[in-house]
């Protein structure tokens, strides 16, 4: 490549010899299919090869990808080694702000390639300039970059090449971190890759330039340079030659920021950038979390750590944040007549603060004792999760008793752990004791939270009791002058849950978004609280029939939990299962099955044998039924039944027996199906969740139809639809299954007009719910197949042909091209295309 070494530093050009574009075309790379993608035009050239646009050549959905190919004319073995390292590193980086790796392989010529998510965006500096973004919006984008880099660091990966061209932002403002070609796995013993071809020198840290060991501090340095360029429009190293940069680093001189940047940026941002650009790695931010915290502190008006502990600075920040309060306090102080009154007030406040501090100290001490025991006892793996909780609870009672005010809060926290494991009896016992202590010590804040939690716990078993507890809890909560964030979340989510139980799904969203606003405004809301709330919002949207919205919030929660190291928690597993169920309702069966496959691995690594596992096995089995794999579903249900019966989980035992009945019906084992339906029905009584009773009724109707009792089946399904509020309400759980069954009953009765009413309502409802026309849907394919068959039998050949032709890609996507139902759609389509006899 022409030009001097220093010229290449200024231009940021590549340092490895690459064949020109014509060479790739001469080798006919364009038009080939690599890993299922047809290769298109070259869209970029980098230090490790070409990047080409590609489109999916196989499957039933469209996807655009970027294919990165190494085709060096020399030093091929080293490039290939670096390329393989990039594949290894990138495969473990599943984050919303990191470009996704789809596949990797080699071309016929032996050139390594990888298939990546294609990001249609601009480099972050161009995006900010082109969109004329203000300073605060630019800072928020940089916080997202820091989040992505921190996620890589949590996976022991240092990027080492952070620069604008590796941070793209699309038109909607979503950013993607790219190119881990020279990234390093901490502790892998690989070479430092400090030569010019393996880095971009003007963005390199001093330790990169000098060939010294690389740590996360190197990425912090590069983030400082990126901040200077994005916020101030200038790169401090732009005019510096490589020789000058190495000399500066060797002498330990600090990089000097341009005077124009110092004059235009707020002083705090300059201090943050300078903290990143310290010559010694130990003098920079400890990691990108600390850098992100300072950026957030700047946006919210709090002191930044880069400014040090200067009291005058911190006082000014306090006054700016609380100007109204400070002014009011000043006027009040001026109005005080005597110092005696001031002293008295201060004494009372000091005592109150001391009491609060003591309360919190004791609470933390008790919690530490509790979790220390769990960590000690779980070492040999001889205890189950429930055993550990029982031992920890006994320890709390022995050491602290129940005569301390802080124990209400501690017992409330521990009750949550039992709730996560589905142990309702232990949860209720702890909540009752927490209620007693909170009442004894007039702790209305904690009492409100306890009552709201008890209302949620008792809602199914004793609705009248739960309603009273919720009313009392909400009355206390609304009267609190400053409720804690935990109490706010508990009471608002309990209020939402009551609305869901009453079928008021839109109303259920109102308190949830009020809770979300509180979390957004809280300086340190906690990952678990936010993840739990996002799961609740997804749940409410799901039952409101807005399944696409549900998936959006569930995805947000899953990404939050994964990025914070909570990927194996019960909350993550619950949200993942809810996402899989939502995908299944939308008919996106392969995606749903992939989520369950990942979920199953996480469940097994975290113990797998508790009540939560039984619930997820019900959901997994139901999805397998939907994709018509009853043998696999029966095995999953049986596994879940063993767990549910072992832990005495009667409601889920009933759901699993219902699942086994579904599998038996699909297998043609009607006697076994009837036996399991009757067993499941034994658990249905007032207060049990309606979905269980509804599911039993629909499967009983299927049995009636399949055994030739069509009139009885018609009466049964009409009763079900009436109870679901059809046709006025189309957003109730179970409506899809009921409409499918109703249409099939009337088709077999040859009442095609009635069958069409149900089939039309079903197709229209699914189309409305999908809200994603580009996504195939198995349930839509089944519904179109059913309506096409109804139309064909009724003599409407053109309508049948349209439905059946539309059904085929959806069925092939969800069931496979060779599945019996897909083949039946083809046969019926061929029949519909035949001209009617004269």
Write a short abstract of this structure.
This protein is of the alpha+beta class. Helix content is 64%, strand content 6%.
Beta-strand residue percentage: 5-15%
The main pleated sheet reads as:
6 strands, antiparallel
Side by side, the strands of the main sheet go: 1-2-3-4-6-5
Computed Rg: 31 Å
Total helical segments: 36
Chain-averaged pLDDT = 79
Computed structural class: alpha+beta
Helix content: 55-70%
Low-confidence stretches: 1-18, 191-197, 309-319, 325-333, 336-383
Number of strands: 11
Shape field:
globular
Give the terminus-to-terminus CA distance: 77 Å
Task: Provide keyphrases for this structure.
disordered N terminus; 3-stranded antiparallel beta sheet; 838 residues; alpha+beta; 36 helices; 6-stranded antiparallel beta sheet
Protein model, in words:
- By secondary structure, the chain is α+β, with helices and mostly antiparallel strands.
- Helix content is 64%, strand content 6%.
- It has 36 helices and eleven strands.
- Helix 29 packs antiparallel against helix 30.
- The longest helix has 39 residues, at 339-377.
- 44% of the residues are buried.
Give the arrangement of secondary structure elements.
Blueprint: H1 5-11, H2 21-26, E1 33-34, E2 37-46, E3 49-56, E4 64-69, H3 76-90, E5 101-106, E6 112-117, E7 121-123, H4 124-130, H5 135-154, E8 157-158, E9 167-170, E10 175-177, E11 184-185, H6 206-210, H7 216-232, H8 242-251, H9 259-264, H10 267-276, H11 288-300, H12 311-321, H13 323-335, H14 339-377, H15 385-400, H16 407-420, H17 424-440, H18 444-458, H19 463-479, H20 485-501, H21 505-521, H22 527-543, H23 547-563, H24 570-585, H25 589-605, H26 611-626, H27 630-647, H28 650-667, H29 670-681, H30 690-706, H31 710-723, H32 735-748, H33 752-770, H34 778-793, H35 797-815, H36 820-833
Antiparallel strand pairs: 1-2, 2-3, 3-4, 4-6, 5-6, 7-9, 8-11, 9-10
Helix pairs in contact: 5-7, 5-11, 7-10, 10-11, 14-15, 15-16, 16-17, 17-18, 18-19, 18-20, 19-20, 20-21, 20-22, 21-22, 22-23, 22-24, 23-24, 24-25, 24-26, 25-26, 26-27, 26-28, 27-28, 28-29, 28-30, 29-30, 30-31, 30-32, 31-32, 32-33, 32-34, 33-34, 34-35, 34-36, 35-36
